[in-house]
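Hey, weird one. I pasted the Cytochrome C oxidase Cbb3 sequence into the form twice and got a warning about non-standard characters only the second time. First submission, copied straight from the form history:
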Amino acid sequence: MFKHYFEQIDKVEIWPIISLTIFFVFFVGLIIWVVRADKNYINEMRQLPMDDGQITNQNPEHS
């Protein structure tokens, strides 16, 4: 059923390549961000669900 519709679209073969490229670039960027992220910031965010509302880190960079 869908094969007929896809055959009518001009240059339809490029869309899977574009989708894969976006997917790959996003996850490579995410991996780079995780590796380069500030470990103190990661620890602060990890503890956030357990936080009782008191500010423990007085660093103005992450406040």
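That's the output from the first submission. The warning seems to come from a hidden character in my clipboard, not from the data itself. The chain has three helices and no strands.
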